[in-house]
Amino acid sequence: MAVSEPNAEPLTETASVQSMPRIDRRSLNVPNSITLSRLVLSIVLFAIISGGHSWITAALMFVIAAATDALDGFIARKYGLVTTLGRILDPFADKIIICGAFLFLVAQPNSGVNAWMALIVFGREMFITSLRSFLEQHGRDFSAVWSGKIKMVLQCAAVTGCLLSLDERFATLPQFMLARDVVLWFAVLVTFYSGVEYSWRAFKMLRGDVT
């Protein structure tokens, strides 16, 4: 009995390592390729914004990149192509395209995006991602709620509007500029609200009020 006890912990570690999801050939599928294309489009988008021209092209590229988020998830779920690599890359690509767009827009005069707006977006995304990772590692369900989905839609609409507003043809339209500011403010407010809602939900889980 005493001889077998020291072997118990190594056996547990081995079983844990073997049960860890792996990245294999199945990861090289269509949904993950679409996700990778979103990262490539993000880099091109940021280069265009930094160049300070072709704002309509930048807006169109952002819309295409953002649309791939829904596309890769739909294909992965419909055809059973969800992989470990996809679970890692998809949220990363989402944060890059949104946070990166707000960051680069801050540097553009008259974009409508202020540094504190970008800070709220950055802070919310980083904090909630950390909470989700921690809770899901401990077997808790921390899936998206409606405020998070609405937040994403408003953020995409705000970034698109801000990019278009940098083009002279849109900048001279008072109604468009007003609409841009309204959508941008709503996006920031809903982002903040969503962060508070997720944080309160996580707090109740950690306190034991929610199983």
Average of the residue pLDDT scores: 85
CATH superfamily: CDP-alcohol phosphotransferase transmembrane (TM) domain
CATH class: Mainly Alpha
**Gyration radius over CA:** 21 Å
Describe the structure in your own words.
The protein is mainly alpha-helical. The chain has helices at residues 8-19, 30-51, 55-78, 84-106, 115-137, 146-165, 168-171, 174-207. The protein has one domain (27-207): CDP-alcohol phosphotransferase transmembrane (TM) domain (Four Helix Bundle (Hemerythrin (Met), subunit A), Up-down Bundle), CATH 1.20.120.1760. The chain contains 8 helices and no strands.
List the helices and strands and how they pair.
Blueprint: H1 8-19, H2 30-51, H3 55-78, H4 84-106, H5 115-137, H6 146-165, H7 168-171, H8 174-207
Properties at a glance:
211 residues; mainly alpha; Four Helix Bundle (Hemerythrin (Met), subunit A); 77% helix; globular
